[in-house]
Amino acid sequence: MADRLAFLEDIYGEAASAHESRYRAALDAFVQAYGPGPVHIFRAPGRVNLIGEHTDYNQGYVMPVALDRDVLFLARPRPDALIRLVNVEDGFPPRSFTISPRIPSGQRGDWSNYVRGPAQELARRLPAITGMDCLVNGAPPLGVPRGAGLSSSSALTVAAAVALAHFAGWAWQGNEMARLCAEAEWYVGTRGGVMDHFIALLAQRGHALFLDCRPDAAGRLHYEPIPLPGGFRLLVVNSGVHHANVRGEFNQRVAACRAGVALLRRHWPGIHALRDVEGVDWAALEPHLPEAVTLAALMAQGLDLGDLPNVPPDAPLRVRACCRHVWTENHRVRQAVAAMKAGDVDRLAHLLDEAHASARDDYRISTPELDALVEAAREVPGVRGARLTGAGWGGCVISLVPAQQVQRFETHVQERYRTVTGRQAEIFPCQAGPGAGLAGVVRDS
Predict the structure, then answer these.
(1) Average pLDDT of the chain?
(2) Which residue of 41, 143, 219, 414 is surrounded by the most CB atoms within 10 Å?
(3) Catalytic one among 196, 216, 281, 353?
(4) CATH class of 245-364
């Protein structure tokens, strides 16, 4: 490997040689777009959530993993405030804009908004933000696939923020940068949490990240890297199913969890989230949680449900089942941390399987296609757990697969899924990669 790309081994380990041609192609494209000279190469990874689904907005626990598939962000500082963007993939036309505390957005859905957002947020915080000439490469097979629930958009946001901060001389801290990136994505109209940005920024190779989604008094989130089992690959299987118009279903689950907390607060005063009763037996909680109740009925009882999303007043909220999922999922995340620290892969596998059953039966966010993938994965000898990952209603399944069984897994799952559903699954063998940052500087591009 050429000396100028020797840094790839620090990032990708044994897989470094597979990435070399990708980096070279990106450098060539950058020079073609902007001319020769030094180039800074930044990167930010995609992610999957190993366990802890729909717990983040309930102030619970999650355990995401950064993938060794990433977005490359090549940049060269400019003497002005102009940002110029090109993308190696088709369908992403060149864009340019000027940095300011109020940057006009591109068209709705325009890819440049994921760079405009962090540029605007940093301009509001730092006195000296310089412009950049930039090239983005998130293309498969080694980039972050779009539309697969692997947070390709958050990876672009994080990569752009890290580049801008570097040229501004800001030595960022994880909590502050994660919040900045989350707020930067509000620019494009999504009000998500900070999990995707936290793992993209703070990941360690070979580790998951146990993250407590309740901020402390100073607004910080606490986290701990947890080593993944050795000898296994994390396989991400994309179902190819993406159900539209599920925002209403999602909002009803948010409302159901808030209703559960409000009802339990009558008996356990002072609680703010389901995690606050994690030390209480579920059998003691269940009688206070109705199987189904409408928002109108809850409001008639004078319950304070806070700032609820748009939920029809007559929509039935499955309070008991939704709360049971979150309550048990928080326990599963904690137990998964203990199992991984102890090297108990069988226990971890059991928890992953339980998590899928809970997401399917209590939270009802699975689909026949996701269930088919989970069943197919479990049929492969040696597989340790399989479950849906992400918001649900489509997207991906993850499995822990012995390294020597990866090819067998891919063949069996592809064939079985095609037989059962008539669809083609896309499979990504992954390893836990490092967090975002400056990969290296090439001075003779």
Answers:
(1) 93
(2) 41
(3) 196
(4) mainly alpha
